[in-house]
Design brief:
The chain is mainly α. The protein is elongated and about 45 Å long.
Length: 45
């Protein structure tokens, strides 16, 4: 039987791993990417 692991959601990885390393907040990253902040953090709960 295969084990199921609780994997991080991609947006969590971006918010907690990538953006801080770049010194950006979600709103700043969305502006740089030319997208809406809600699109970048759509799964934020």
């Amino acid at each position: 039987m295969r084990r199921i692991y609780n994997l991080s959601h991609p947006d969590e990885t971006v918010r907690e791993g990538v953006l801080p390393g770049l010194g950006l907040m979600v709103m700043q990253a969305a502006e740089e990417l030319g997208i809406n902040r809600a699109t970048l953090s759509c799964a934020e709960r």
